[in-house]
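pinging the channel bc i need a second pair of eyes. not urgent but kinda urgent?? the chain im working w is below, pasted from the shared doc
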Amino acid sequence: MSTALQTLVETSDLHTNFYTFEGVVRALNGVSIVVNRGETYGLVGESGCGKSVTVRSLMRIVQPPGRIDSGRIVLFLNERDRSRGIEILQRTETYMQSIRGSDISMIFQEPGAALNPVLSVLDQVGESYRLHRMEQMITETLAGLEGERTAMHRNSPRRAVRRLQAALLKAERRGLQRWAALVGRIDNELYLLEDRQDVEALARKESLNRGRDRARPRSGLASIARRVPLLRRYRRPINATIRRHVVELLRSLGIPNPENVVRRYPHELSGGMQQRIVIAIALACHPTLLIADEPTSNLDVTIQAQIVELIKDLKRTTISSVLFITHDLGLVAEVCDRVTVMYAGDVSETATVRELFRGPLHPYTAGLLASVPKVDQREELSMIPGAVPNLIRPPEGCRFHPRCPKRMEICEIQKPPTVEHSRGHWVACHLYPGRGNA
């Protein structure tokens, strides 16, 4: 299912389980998806089918008692070498923190829960700049300080203050540059050792991962200044630079009066405004992949339309790829290029949106499409009988077989392989036998 030259992220045979007192919830049962550069990819299915668990596994933010037990998640972030990617399940949490919010960002389903109630909008959106773009913020601040210093009188005390601020900021920037160079060398060596599993390579990878976890930006003079109450004020101009970027970002997202909004707290904002703030946090560092986990849920229809149009505009201007999660097939038809239908932790079908709507292959996909109301609908809406199974004790074989109108004896015994029925159209169903290629 992979197209190596275009692939941005690929999961293979991903199993994620939740270990509860009642039993093991087998949330993902060998999920394999491929998201290409430049496309909007949809994940669709009923509530509880594993859509959100899939993207949380991809971001490695599955919380206990959940755990990724097996499978592969590969990111192709290196434009210079597209032959193989980075296996993120082999990387440390420190590495994941460096790419979350920078290379991959996520719009969470509930903006009210995603935002911190005790931090202002400026603090929450600005955090991305502090974590991932601090060197750029310092460089821009230094340029502003130099302009101010040049305009001041030669004997002005403020000129001396600006000179001290510039010296401390330059020291901090040098520390960041040394740290970035060290981390870059470690990541490059880990990348070269990615496929080696011999004892020597494994020991070296463990040593490199420990070194990366311990690495911290060290700026000498600036580190000392940050411990002195009077001198630590040298960083105030950075705050002004970050504030300017946050205000510009909010304005670009169509938020009125952003200068006032940055001072507000989440409880002072409407639901639609909170969703735009969550989008701003995700977009602050121009991620390569934006994951949108039902970004229009719990919003009224007009706000939903605005959010969808906003994401489509951002896809054209800012983001390389979008992974869109929803249970709304109409929304999939409007915004997505390709789509994967999930059921009870399994991938049922993957195809282009046009192909899927024109000729669904899996009985579950056909049932979903038949349940969508039509403009000229006269008869009762079709429905899929039954309910999503309990994933602590899922059905044997195909998990959809208890609800399937076309089930066969083999469906109750054996999980169907994923086969390519036509070019780019994959289906996991015993109605379409062939050589499996998950």
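so The longest strand covers residues 7-19. and Residues 11 and 244 are 38 Å apart (CA to CA). — does that match what u expected or am i reading it wrong
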